[in-house]
Amino acid sequence: MKRNEKTDKVQRISVSLPESLTRALDQMVTECNYRNRSQAIAHMVRESLLEYHRKGGNQIMAGTITLVYDEARPDLRNRLIQIQRSHIDTVISSLNVLLENQHSLEVLQVQGPVDTLYAIQKEIRACKGVESCKLALTTTIMPPIHSNEEERHERR
């Protein structure tokens, strides 16, 4: 999605938001040093469109799946491990941080076809007790972890 700031014609639109959301937006505008609400909303729309366009397809991407879940849910931890093991070629590593109130924050480092990464996210998000599950992607990928001797010589 390429655009030229100087030649991109601006269109005025109207957005209605609940008062609490407007207050939160104004706070974000101030804290993030946006010039105005329009700049902040344009940034959010641009980011959402990038995510939308990344969905689907076989393009290899790297990223993280960040989830917060309730440890008190029976068998949830085992289910999450089972999901990761079933995608062992895609889930590179995981970090688990214990939070308050029997909750955990887990960050999975992933790399693979974008449709597979979204499928893993959906599978995790569908588990009862998972309170949030976010996939962040980048087109910059990790180099191969293992390669045979011939491939190593070709890269030099």
Q: Characteristics of this structure?
A:
156 residues; alpha+beta; Alpha-Beta Plaits; 39% helix; globular
What secondary-structure arrangement, pairings included, does this model have?
Blueprint: H1 19-31, H2 37-54, E1 60-70, H3 76-86, E2 91-98, E3 103-113, H4 114-125, E4 130-138, H5 149-155
Antiparallel strand pairs: 1-3, 1-4, 2-3
Q: Explain this structure to me?
A:
This protein has a four-stranded antiparallel sheet, covered by helices on one side. The protein has helices at residues 19-31, 37-54, 76-86, 114-125, 149-155; strands spanning 60-70, 91-98, 103-113, 130-138. It is of the alpha+beta class. The model has no long low-confidence stretch (mean pLDDT 87). The protein is globular, with a radius of gyration of 20 Å. It has two domains: 19-54; 60-138, Alpha-Beta Plaits. It starts with 18 loop residues before the first helix and ends with a helix.
In CATH, the architecture of the largest domain is 2-Layer Sandwich
Q: Classify the beta-strand content into a percent band.
A: 25-35%
The total strand number stands at 4
What is the average per-residue confidence, as pLDDT, rounded to a whole number?
87
CATH topology (fold) name of the largest domain = Alpha-Beta Plaits
Terminal-residue CA separation? 34 Å
